[in-house]
Design brief:
Layout (H helix, E strand, L loop, with lengths): L8 H5 L23 E7 L19 E9 L6 E2 L4 H6 L5 H13 L3 E8 L9 H18 L3 E6 L5 H15 L4 E4 L12 H8 L6 E5 L5 E3 L5 E3 L3 H12 L8 E6 L12 H13 L17 E5 L1 H6 L3 H12 L13 E3 L3 E3 L3 E6 L6 E5 L16 E3 L3 E8 L9 E7 L6 E2 L5 E2 L4 E4 L2 E5 L3 E2 L13 E3 L1
Parallel strand pairs: 1-2, 1-11, 2-4, 4-5, 5-6, 6-7, 7-10, 10-11, 13-18, 19-21
Antiparallel strand pairs: 2-3, 8-9, 12-14, 14-16, 15-17, 17-18, 20-23, 21-22, 22-24
Helix pairs in contact: 4-5, 5-6, 7-8, 8-10
Length: 467
């Protein structure tokens, strides 16, 4: 995760411009975590930072990400082995002690997850078999060591389709308490069209938090299209707002920073700058020249690389940032988007219905499904009336920037046309002998044609014969 390439300004300029769209989803991951939290990486290696046992990690860290799982010869599968150099530095830290320590910190309310990737990580999930192998192997590690979830820190790219499939499979195995975090490099979160951003949106209903690495980045575009340099409060707030205004909930966005200058090649800021950025996003105070378009009282928190470098620096990061996160309170000011309404109401009808969906929250985006499934970030955006010509269940929810997503509303329209015939519809190809239902009557097609508005069976006897 450290010593990564610093992306040049030229590469930044070639990035796809930030789109100001919305890509919502509805349910929150239930993981027993505080409203505002601190995540830190525990190094399973000795690189000069202070070596720590898991039990040495202070309680100020809500999530401890064990860095890192290892790739195996099986595509997509990962394993974990306690580093022998670390074990030796700690006087013989054993696997059984490691497992016992995980249980101990969990007993005091902390969560421990396994991180996959890092600077040298070579794990790739690029097909369905690899997705299955990934889910099975991570779940096996969770079972063996007691991990609460997984962190995705693949710094050589990610396939959003198959990794989403893998994480959904893991979720089905582990249940609703599964923690899923991500730590993409800054360049990967510049636009919702990037692979990492797509992955986050694809799993939004089971995603816990995205802690973007706001370091080793050089200069980047902010939400307002202006260029900001790393190491400033504006860099943190302007780039975080890209995520906050393009589909992720505020409780899914965290600020990732190095714990000390030794923890990164560039981008270190004083923990007080981290606090100022959190304030700016939380309530609009203490920022720089960039002003977010909304406030985000449920902004999730901060992440640092690493707990070990923080320990080497007297835990200055944790001792400064965690109390400030606690002072932000429960984030109860965050409002929720009004649940969408349907017209006409669901029920039984004897003809096709034109269904409209509205939301009382100004500027809300509505997504819906017509197959009975729960809508998500990949579902169609509502843009006009939906023609319902057969029994159909429509589900919809809405989202708006700076607000919690609405609940899902579900209605069923039962179309009883007095028989089992298809209801006539425009822009449909009919052949001789087809029977349709329209306005309380059945009609038989007597001439092949593609129907148009105005060619309703009752209007065109040359095409239809009443039965």
């Amino acid at each position: 995760m450290k010593g990564k390439k610093i992306w040049s300004f030229l590469l930044m300029c070639l990035m796809i411009a930030v789109t100001i769209g919305k890509n919502p989803i509805t349910s929150y991951a239930q993981s027993g975590l505080p409203t505002h939290l601190l995540t830190g990486y525990w190094q399973n290696f000795n690189n000069g930072a202070k070596c720590l046992r898991i039990s040495d990690v202070p309680v100020s860290y809500d999530i401890i990400a064990v860095a890192f799982a290892d790739a195996t010869s099986t595509p997509g599968a990962v394993s974990f082995t306690l580093d022998s150099g670390l074990s030796s530095a700690l006087g013989g830290y054993t696997e059984s002690q490691f497992i016992s320590d995980i249980a101990a910190v969990k007993g005091r309310g902390q969560k421990v997850i396994i991180s996959v990737g890092g600077q040298n990580g070579t794990i790739r999930v690029e097909d369905s078999n690899a997705a299955t192998n990934f889910a099975n192997s991570v779940y096996s590690l969770m079972t063996k060591y007691g991990f609460d979830g997984v962190d995705i820190d693949l710094e050589n790219g990610v396939n959003p389709t198959y990794m989403a499939s893998a994480l959904r499979s893991l979720s089905s195995k582990a249940g609703p308490g599964l923690i899923i975090t991500m730590a993409p490099e800054t360049i990967y979160m510049q636009s919702p069209s990037s692979s990492y951003f797509q992955l986050a949106l694809n799993i939004k209903d089971i995603l816990t938090i995205v802690n973007t690495q706001y370091y080793n980045s050089g200069a980047m575009l902010g939400y307002d299209g202006k260029v900001y340099s790393q190491g400033t409060v504006d860099f943190l707030t302007a780039l975080a707002t890209i995520q906050l205004e393009n589909g992720l909930r505020p409780d899914q966005v965290g600020l990732g920073l190095p714990a000390s200058p030794s923890g990164a090649g560039g981008g270190y800021v004083s923990p007080t700058v981290v606090n100022a950025a959190l304030d700016c996003l939380y309530n609009g105070s203490n920022g720089g020249t960039f002003k977010p378009p909304h406030t985000y009282p449920t902004i999730r928190g901060a992440m640092t690389w690493s707990i070990n470098w923080d320990a080497s620096n007297g835990y200055n990061f944790a001792n400064t940032v965690k109390p400030h996160l606690n002072s932000l309170g429960g984030g109860g000011q965050q409002q929720t988007v009004v649940t969408p309404a349907f017209s006409p109401a669901g029920g039984k009808y004897n003809s096709a219905q034109s269904v409209t969906i509205t939301c009382a929250t100004s500027g809300a985006t509505i997504r819906y499904t017509t197959d009975g499934s729960t809508p998500n970030s990949g579902s169609p955006v509502y843009s006009g009336a939906i023609n319902v010509s057969s029994t159909t269940t429509i589900k919809a929810y809405a989202t708006a920037p700076g607000m919690n997503d609405s609940a899902v509303n579900s209605v069923t329209y039962t179309i009883d046309n007095g028989g089992n015939y298809q209801t006539w519809a425009p822009n449909t190809a009919y052949k001789v002998g087809d029977i349709v239902y329209y306005s309380g009557k059945n009609y038989k097609c007597i001439q092949p044609h593609t129907s148009l508005v105005g060619w309703e069976p009752s209007n065109v006897p040359a095409l239809w014969q009443v039965q």
